[in-house]
Specification:
Layout: E1 7-9, E2 12-19, H1 27-40, E3 44-51, E4 60-66, H2 70-93, H3 116-123
Parallel strand pairs: 2-3
Antiparallel strand pairs: 1-2, 3-4
Helix pairs in contact: 1-2
Bound molecules: iron/sulfur cluster.
Residues 103, 109-110, 113, 115-116, 119 line the site of iron/sulfur cluster.
């Protein structure tokens, strides 16, 4: 497993995200920090959202993340291991159909894709 932390300071991972969105904080930002915390055995991680929308008065939004319980970190660890195992099987079999489909929150990864209609048909998504 490989990863690239933006900043690793004093044993704590820091991830910086730039966005034009004016207020949302996608779950995958938090997930990414959580996985970095697991990978580095850190108890604390940080997320800095920089909002590039010129209408925003305070473009810097820092968040501090900390495991709330052993169960929370275990849950993230199990999810990560499950994803890794699925990926390993798919790579060994050269067959991706067993992998979960990830379109991003609110479909953002697919939003402008030319194949969206085709993928929607395959997955039975009606818009
Ligand atoms: S091909 Fe396009 S629409 Fe289909 S899953 Fe990938 S990004 Fe989304």
């Amino acid at each position: 497993m490989d990863y690239s932390i933006d900043i690793f300071d004093n044993g704590e991972p820091i991830e910086i995200k730039t966005t034009f969105a004016s207020h949302d904080r996608p779950q995958h930002y938090q997930d990414q920090i959580a996985y970095y915390m697991l990978a580095t055995k850190a108890f604390v991680g940080h997320l800095l959202i920089i909002r590039e929308n010129p209408r925003i008065e305070s473009p810097f939004e820092p968040y501090r993340m900390e495991w709330e319980s052993e169960e929370e970190s275990e849950s993230y660890r199990n999810r990560l291991i499950e994803k890794r195992d699925l990926l390993m099987v798919a790579l060994q079999n050269k067959e991706v159909s067993s992998l979960p489909i990830w379109r991003g929150e609110k479909d953002w990864l697919c939003r402008n894709c030319l194949w969206r209609e085709e993928c929607d048909k395959i997955e039975g998504i009606v818009r």
